[in-house]
What we know:
The structure holds 2 protein chains of 2 kinds. Chain A is an all-alpha fold. Chain A has helices spanning 7-17, 41-55, 61-66, 70-81. In chain B, 34% of the residues lie in helices and 19% in strands. Chain B has 13 helices and 13 strands.
Amino acid sequence: MAATVTPEAVEKTVVEALPQFGVDESQISRDATFEELDVDSLDLAELSQIIEDEYGVQLKGDDVGKIKTVGDAIDLVVAKSG
Amino acid sequence: MNREIVVTGVGAVTPLGVGSRTLYERWRAGVSGIQDGVGAATEYEPTDYLSIKEARRSDRFAQFAMVASDEALAEAGWKDEIPYDVNRVATLIGTGIGGIGTLEANHKKLLDQGPKAVSPLSIPLLMGNAASAAVSMRHGLRGQSFATLSACAAGAHAIGTAARMIQTGDADAVVTGGSEAALTPLATAAFGALDALSDIGISRPFDAKRDGFVMGEGAAVLVLEDGERARARGANILARLAGYGASSDAYHLTAPEKDGGGAIAAMEAALRDAGYGPQDVVYVNAHGTSTPLNDRAETIAIKHVLGEEVPVSSLKSAIGHLLGAAGAVEAVATILAMRDRVAPPTLNYETPDEGLDLDYVPNEARTLDINGKPAVALSNAFGFGGHNAVLCLEVA
Lengths: 82, 396
């Protein structure tokens, strides 16, 4: 069963996932852009997979193209789960 | 070869350690990198050389190539700045199998957890050109880049083809070599099923008791440059790639021609390309896999082309068979040996086999007494599929 989507839960998932991709943990905040964090399309494909596995929310290419910041990603997951 | 091709930097990651000199010096000293029947690159630790991102974005075979390329480019004096228009520097790294570790891990996820568990990084990591791509990106080399895939001849094919790129004027320099990381359950089981591997886990090329090869992993990378340009920039020249020859057996998927025909053709072509005769060759770095068939056919081929006097040894006795990396690793070791005028040893050689009666430099390195002549060596690489590639290397 997929976990319940709450902004806090998704934020925790994202913040825990990014360091696996080599992101410096201290740089992660809602306002940080993926560009600043050196998170590219391949990292976002992996992040999408983690999100889908955890919450059952699918992020497709169009969705991923629109998000610029960590906060965008969290908000998109919350919005799509509604 | 009309345009002179020179080697200005070499690098290696092998079961004998990280670094080309470590490889050569330990081999010369008779050290074996084979433990428990496997030649693993145990001294290589990814995070010593790569960031977390670089390491997880590359299969082990591409990592080996990146680390070896760092060493080779540093030796060539390319570390701070590439001394050529980067659009005219090509990258060509051969492999036998590519990222099979990535393939196996993701296939397991597919079977165990379903298609959604398969990593989006699977294809970019496992593709056979991944090492070339990684090296090109790492150093900003924007000339042509691709991979040679010709089983255990891939590394030598890459180096020979790289030389041709410079000679035809398509590139001024090429970063080239071979890489392999196939110490995986599937590759090991598959070579075992072919009865190609040593049951006793000992690599003893040319010995009567040889019973198959020992698998190894690693990479070597060389910087090749147009000789004229390299000299003009004051580069330190390690060796010349004096000639290259390649052929196909067109005979059998795995067995070499019994009379060594394809190997003979490639060795003769390399010598012809170099403008040398049999009497000029002072050392042969054999393919020498430790399989019954290869070592016999290769002995016949060497005798036919060079006669019975030339010293012949096999690096595979010390590190096992590095498959698509072998031709490149052996070329690097040959260059360093020729610089020292040394024939490194064939380890584990105990019992002569009938008909295998060349000078295999058993167990101890030997100084070559060549009276001031250039040290001209052949380095042989032969692959499943009947692919033969031979490099003629010369150190003045």
